[in-house]
Design goal:
Length: about 375
């Protein structure tokens, strides 16, 4: 199988991740923070080590500001439902994944919040001045994706962060497509809340993710339950326990720890340049083939390794099915859980074909895909 669906989840993982999962499951899979025995202490160290790595990677205020979650969707829901109040106004965009759009839309329909959805330009980028103009006295939160999971376009979050911070509002960034691929400095970029998965560019297992909560943000508890300390009537307010009720996915986090180490050792910029170069290679071959429309802009400095296109001959689902069944190539056709941007592109309701190479893909993989596309549409 040639796997080119890394925007959904990265595959394969580094060998060190597989080895860590096996070793940890056999030797250290106890409940962290609940006992003083050696296995419980090893489990707790896995959590703390990973928090430290994340704090260094994202330049956070402190390791305990990172609360582990099931995935990025979990982290985004935790942030949105933990900071918003009745009557608040939220600014977001039409680039957003359903993990942002659906919770906000439901809160809007329930009459709890008002919502402004900004439109990206033709290349797939939000104008920071549009954010400034959208702010109102009732705006509590600006929630934006760092990079579109459809177009791969990286948004100017540093500029947006400065605007939001100067206005005294909160800034939530969905880093599903950039955590582990694009350098992020939560303090320099004035990010109050950063949500990200562990299973994409951080190269960890599924079932992992985290929410960073800066000191300006007050997030209500997502769930109440066990935290190791039992002598209180209510859930503790200190971080990370405030947002980590119940037993953590310590096995997955042990694997995530090794994924982060691999990314740091190889280098974020090196990995990103490799992935973007593969997308550029495919884009050139699609140009040569003809009959394909590619979406977004071609500025490699403002993209991650994701490219979406449509054939003028076959719908996306047919292309995806043929690639899978006849050529053993995995891509992602459809709406990619981002219907608003597909409506703006004119690709709704069928969507587009998305190709997202990872750090272990090669030029030969891209050439095989281009050859297969030529055979299918020819």
């Amino acid at each position: 199988m040639i796997y080119l669906d890394n925007a959904a989840t990265s595959f394969p993982k580094p060998e060190s991740v597989y080895q860590a999962l096996d070793k940890f499951a056999r030797q250290s899979l106890a409940n962290p923070g609940r006992a003083g025995h050696k296995m419980a202490q090893a489990a707790e160290r896995a959590l703390e080590d990973t928090r430290h790595l994340l704090n260094v990677l994202f330049h956070g205020e402190a390791p305990e500001r990172f609360a582990f979650t099931l995935n990025c969707t979990d982290a985004l829901n935790m942030a949105l439902k933990g900071v918003l109040h009745e009557g608040d106004h939220v600014v977001t965009s039409n680039l957003e994944h359903n993990s942002v759009s659906r919770p906000l839309r439901q809160m809007e329909l329930d009459g709890r919040i008002t919502l402004t959805r900004l439109k990206a330009d033709g290349g797939g980028t939000i104008d920071p001045d549009d954010v400034r103009r959208a702010l109102t006295p009732k705006t509590r939160l600006v929630a934006l994706t760092h990079a579109s999971n459809v177009l791969g376009t990286v948004q100017p979050i540093a500029e947006v962060g400065r605007i939001v911070r100067e206005a005294g509002r909160l800034f939530l960034v969905d880093a599903a497509q950039t955590a582990g691929a694009v350098p992020i400095d939560v303090q320099a970029f004035a990010i109050d809340l950063l949500a990200f998965p562990g299973h994409k560019s951080l190269l960890g297992p599924t079932g992992t993710g985290a929410l960073y909560v800066g000191s300006r943000a007050e997030v209500r508890a997502w769930r109440e339950g066990g935290t190791g300390g039992a002598d209180t009537d209510t859930h503790p307010l200190k971080f990370p326990q405030r947002l980590e009720g119940g037993t953590a996915n310590v096995l997955g986090i042990a694997g995530l720890r090794e994924g982060i180490k691999y990314v740091q050792e190889r280098g974020l910029n090196v990995i990103r340049q490799h992935e973007v170069a593969l997308c550029d290679r495919l884009w050139r071959q699609l140009d040569e083939l003809g009959g394909f429309q590619v979406y977004g802009h071609r500025d490699a400095k403002r993209r991650v390794g994701t490219i979406s296109f449509r054939s003028k001959v076959l719908p996306p689902e047919d292309l995806g099915g043929s690639l899978d069944s006849s050529f053993d190539i995995a891509i992602r056709p459809g709406l990619h859980c981002a219907p608003y941007i597909h409506r703006a592109l004119g690709t709704h309701p069928e969507g587009a074909v998305r190709v997202s190479p990872g750090p272990f893909n090669t030029e030969e993989d891209i050439d095989a895909l281009a050859k297969a596309l030529a055979e299918i549409v020819g």
